Q: What sequence folds into this?
């Protein structure tokens, strides 16, 4: 489960930015194509925040839809997996959204 390592990094980054202040809430964006499971992040968050300035903090996760653009016809399409075929038949799809994992904001007490 690579989400444990990812969650540890999130906690570390937020702790550093909080500079000792208690954290009330953390908001993340997780792309559908990022290979990161939001439920696993939620589970790991409780474990990773114990005895830190994030202990007891709420975690809000927004899932960002996967989107692609055909390199041949420029058509944009929704994607729920990295490999997709355009209605024109091309498999030359460029991912334009949904691969991110981003800390959007944190709220301090």
A:
């Amino acid at each position: 489960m690579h989400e444990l390592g990812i969650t540890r990094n999130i906690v570390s980054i937020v702790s550093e930015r909080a500079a000792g202040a208690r954290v009330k809430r953390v908001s993340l964006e997780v792309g559908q194509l990022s290979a990161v499971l939001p439920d696993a992040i939620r589970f790991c968050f409780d474990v990773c925040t114990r005895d830190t300035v994030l202990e007891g903090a709420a975690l809000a996760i927004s899932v960002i839809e996967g989107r692609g653009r055909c390199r041949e016809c420029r058509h944009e399409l929704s994607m729920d997996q990295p490999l997709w075929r355009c209605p024109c038949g091309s498999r030359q799809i460029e991912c334009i959204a949904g691969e991110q994992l981003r800390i959007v904001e944190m709220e301090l007490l």
